Structures are given as structure tokens and as C-alpha cells.
Amino acid sequence: MSNPEIRIDQLTGGRVLVAPGRAERPDDFTPGEWHPAGHEGCPFCEGNESATPPEVEADRPEGGTENGPGWATRTVPNLYPAVTPREAGQPEDARIVPDRAGAESSAFSSPADPLLASGRGSEPDMFVSRPAYGSHEVIVNSPSHLASLAELEGDSLSTAVAAWRRRMRAHRDSAYVQLILNQGPDSGASLEHSHAQLGAMEFVPPAVARERERVGAYRERTAGASLLGEILREEIRRGDRLVAIDDEVALVCPWASRHPYEMRLIPRRPTARFEEDEGGAAMLGRALRALTELFGNPCQLNLWVRTAPRGVEHFHWHLDLIPRLEPASAFEMATGVDINIVSPETAAEALRKAID
User: Fold this and answer.
1) Topology given in CATH for the domain delimited by 7-24+40-90+135-356
2) Residue 310: pLDDT over 80
3) What is the phi-psi region of residue 280: left when phi exceeds 0, alpha when psi lies from -120 to 50, beta otherwise?
């Protein structure tokens, strides 16, 4: 392709400008390089357990003492949480709270939204806030000081992914559980030792709510079809954005990829919740190694899981990952529309060669 295109993300309705010609523009800046510092003083390394808060959970295949060595994965509270737990005895269900106009909050809305109180006869408070309750955890993926998830060998990656799922199930009563992984300073990571983060929240983020609504609307219009399942079927048939496929999952570059070399791991059998499924770790390892092959080790990247909110039956989980190759510009920030300078078809072709 040569001319820019507008593509619409089928899952969110968001627009993306795919403009490969912008890759030819002059560039006076060298992309940030990452040279990991090593294990010295790392609080996540085995043997430094006292440098973190007491563990919430640890996988200890050979047994061992709590908050001591001998673990394969280890989960601790985040020292700098974005959401905080409720105090003991505090009512857990603040999700149904009428505001002054009589509107009620839910996982998908909040009385902190001034528009809920903008009915006749009420004066909305445009600056109201509410406590951010929830749980914010760090899941350390390995006792060894590995800066890249791609460096996990053998069954170690499967062990880490199993820990992600286990911790997500532990918070199944939350409105939404978000699993993310930042790798490298340009990704937003503050510590280089490979770790995931889990945020269990009392609300459903707008992007997730949008996807849920579109999945539900498509299901109604098609008498029960899965939106992502239909997309995947067509991606497999066409093949130009398909990177790899096995018996469990497929790996594609999404049609409306927002970033160069963005990939999406999709289970072949529509399953609502990542945490209740089992597949995908082997394909994730292949995807990570392909990015390393193309962009060096360690490759800076972001990874996140999209799973069903609490109480939602019809959904199709997926895992998305992007290498951090370009920073966002003011255009993206101002419009909410991403510009991707590498078409997903071109990216998929390169990734297919790198993944084999």
C-alpha cells in the first residue's frame, strides 16, 4: 500500500491512520536504547525477599519458607499502588450508590460522573471524586534477574502465565481485573526484572466497556456469533495478517493495528475469560522471540490481557503486545487517533519470517 488509509478497529470502533509513507520522513533522533543494569540491588531477585512487602502468594515447587527463597513466581503488593484495598469492616459493595439526581452507579458508570447529576432540578458538582478502591499487585515472573520475558526458558514462561491466571482468579469478584506487563524504560517500567502487574478495580475501564458493548451488539445482530471469532476466521482465510497458528490460539497483526508490529493472540475457541482458559503460553513465547529477532534483546514492549468483566458471559479474551518503537506524538494525544507507519500486512510478513 502507498496511500494512507483509515481503518476502524472492529472491537472498539476506534480509528487508526495507516500511513507507511511517513516512515520515510527525516529523523534526527535515535530511538532509545536499553542497557539493563543487572541484578545488583534488585528487590525482585531470589534472596532479596525482605526488600518487598510480604508476599501475597508464591509458587514454591519444592516447598520452602514463606517470604524466603525457593520460589518460581512470587506475588507481592505494589509499593506504589494505583488503587488501594478497602479497610477492614468497610462495606465492600459501593457499586450501587444513588446520586442527588437519583442515578445509580455500577461497574460501568459512577456517581462521580457529573453528567449523572445533570437532570432537571439538580446542580451537578463538576469536581466530585471517589476513593479508588481495589488491589494492585506485582507478579515476579522469575527468581532469576531476567530483563526480558523472552529469556524465560523451558516451562518457565508457562509457569509465569499460570501465575498471572491464578492471581486474576483470586480477584474474580472485582468489576474488572487488568493484567499488564511493561518491559524497558520506554514502556513505563520502573524496574527491569521481568514482572507483570495486576489491577483489580471496582469499575470497568471505558475501552473494555466499549468492546463489551460491540461484542454484545454483534451477537444480537447475528443470532449468537462471536465478533472476535468471526474476525479470526476471516484472518485465517485471508492469511495476509496471520503470523502463526497452532491448535490453541492464533497470532495476528490486527487490521487496525495502532502501532508498528502490534500483535494479538486470540484463542481459536471463543472463551470469555483469560484466567479460566489454559492455552497461549507457547505462542506467546514464539511472539516474544520473533520481536527479539527483529528488534534485539532485550526488546522494549507492552503487553496486556483483555478479559471479560465480572458478570459478562459472552466475550472473547485476547492478549495484545506491541514493541515500543516510536513515542506518541501530539496528534495522537489530541485526537485519540493513532498513526501507524508500518501496515499490519507488512509487519505480519516480517514476523512470519522471524517466528519460524
Assistant:
1) HIT family, subunit A (3.30.428)
2) yes
3) left
Q: What is the mean pLDDT of residues 54-72?
A: 95
**What integer pLDDT is reported at residue 97 of this predicted model?**
42
Please report the pLDDT score of residue 48 as a whole number.
96
Q: Is the pLDDT of residue 28 over 50?
A: no
| pLDDT for the residue numbered 110 | 67
- Residues of each domain in the chain carrying CATH 3.30.428.10: 7-24+40-90+135-356
Cell numbers linked to 90: 468497610
